[in-house]
UniProtKB/TrEMBL annotation:
Family of this protein: Belongs to the 'GDSL' lipolytic enzyme family.
Keywords, comma-separated and alphabetical: Hydrolase, Lipid degradation, Lipid metabolism, Signal
GO molecular function, one term: hydrolase activity, acting on ester bonds
Keyword Nucleotidyltransferase attached: no
Spans traversing the lipid bilayer: none
GO biological process, alphabetically ordered: lipid catabolic process
The name this protein goes by in its record: SGNH hydrolase-type esterase domain-containing protein
Signal peptide start and end residues: 1-23
Pfam families in the cross-refs: Lipase_GDSL
Organism lineage string: Eukaryota, Viridiplantae, Streptophyta, Embryophyta, Tracheophyta
Matches recorded under InterPro entries: GDSL, GDSL_Est/Lipase, SGNH_hydro_sf, SGNH_plant_lipase-like
Length: 394
């Protein structure tokens, strides 16, 4: 290594160390130097506005969505405020008994933009992109009732398009490094049950497959998506399973009995999640430990669905915004019932968590035990990768 490159490397390390200190007092490091890109794929649980640009009924672009967002306006997020990707890139200090992790410093502390946003250009490409679209599933025929949504095949196509834009901006070597050092979040599966297999009695897929066979098919198709992400350069992929599908207010209103979670959808989740976890183990054995990180969304959700008071919630059976039994029927609109204190509700609308519930979910993904995230939590991943990156620069 030349004297110039050695001193240059020390300068970058010093800048990154300084960025850590600066971030600790609430300022941001330059994303182009120290930040880690963040890419998001999946459905409405992680969509931050792509569907606003599409002709679809799966939109969250009207009040009271966004009522607790910093702008107090709807953004396309299916939440009263921040969603899971926002919180992962938030600068909130997450404390545990043994350590404190400043998540925003690691990921750049800047929320990623929807891929379809006209603002996603130039240096903002280095922050990453959100490709998620409400209504999509693992299968291309999931969510057909929503018409124009970004199905997974197109989300991956857009990711390829994004990488071409990035190469044009910073060159092939730097673009490849940005993707390889990124964190990826993918959330899929719920719609393949709720908006496909169980959408109507005797649905096409339910006539084609028994539930166990359908789950095996879903998991095999999901595996192809994950392998494609690896082939496109992703090396840290957080994969969430489905939550307790039968406990959502919409399902309680339509299928539940006496407020109990719907048995058939709980069975679907109980079949899907273990099989997905085994696939992730196999992929890690093939590509390297920790490439795919399994987030146990079912366990996290079920903890506060089964015992909401332990987390400071008043109810996990009623949506904050909606109408009908459990506020679980129809859309959340300005005419809907709206709770006064969103922090007391697990569910914001018929299917989606409140911001506060999302914060509980992310805290477990970031610092939780192996019961919640495996083979390591996200804080451990980020710290380990930061050390490796510093060693590479030395």
């Amino acid at each position: 290594m030349s004297a110039w490159s050695s001193s240059s490397s020390r300068l970058v390390v010093a800048r990154c160390f300084l960025a850590t200190v600066v971030a600790a007092v609430g300022l941001l490091a330059k994303p182009s130097e120290c930040a880690r890109a963040f890419f998001v794929f999946g459905d409405s649980l992680v969509d931050n506005g792509n569907n606003n640009y599409l002709m679809t009924t799966a939109r969250a672009d009207a009040p009271p969505y966004g009522i607790d967002y910093p702008t107090h306006r709807p953004t396309g997020r299916f939440s009263n405020g921040l969603n899971i990707p926002d919180i992962i890139t938030d600068t909130t200090l997450i404390n545990t008994s043994s350590s404190s992790v400043l998540t925003g410093e690691h990921l750049g502390a800047e929320p990623v933009l929807p891929y379809l946003s006209p603002q996603l250009r130039g240096q903002k490409l280095l922050v990453g992109a959100n490709f998620a679209s409400a209504g999509v599933g693992i299968l291309n025929d999931t969510g057909i009732q929503f018409v124009d949504i970004i199905r997974m095949s197109r989300q991956l196509s857009y990711f390829g398009e994004y990488q071409r834009k990035l190469r044009a901006l910073v060159g092939p070597a730097r673009a490849r490094q940005v993707v390889r050092r990124s964190l990826v979040l993918i959330t899929l599966g719920g719609n393949d049950f709720v908006n496909n297999y169980f959408l109507v009695p005797f649905s096409l897929r339910s006539r084609e497959f028994s539930l166990p066979d359908y789950v095996r098919y879903l998991v095999s198709e999901y595996k192809k998506i994950l392998i494609r992400l690896y082939a496109m350069g992703c090396r840290r992929v957080l994969v969430t399973g489905t939550g307790p599908l039968g406990c959502a207010p919409a399902i309680l209103a339509q299928r539940g009995r006496n407020g109990e979670c719907a048995t058939e959808l709980m069975r679907a989740a109980s079949l899907f999640n273990p099989q997905l976890a085994r696939v992730l183990d196999a992929l890690n054995a093939r590509f390297g430990a920790g490439t795919f990180i399994a987030a146990n969304a079912f366990r996290v959700h079920f903890d506060f669905v089964s015992n909401p008071a332990a987390y400071g919630f008043a109810t996990a059976k009623e949506a904050c915004c909606g109408q009908g039994p459990h506020n679980g029927l129809g859309l959340c609109t300005p005419a809907s019932n709206l709770c006064r204190d969103r922090t007391k509700y697990v569910f914001w609308d018929a299917y989606h968590p409140t911001e506060r519930a999302n914060r509980v979910i992310v805290s477990q993904f970031m610092t939780g035990s192996l019961d919640y995230v495996s083979p390591m939590n996200i804080s451990t991943v980020l710290e380990m990768d930061a050390r490796l990156h510093r060693d590479d620069l030395d």
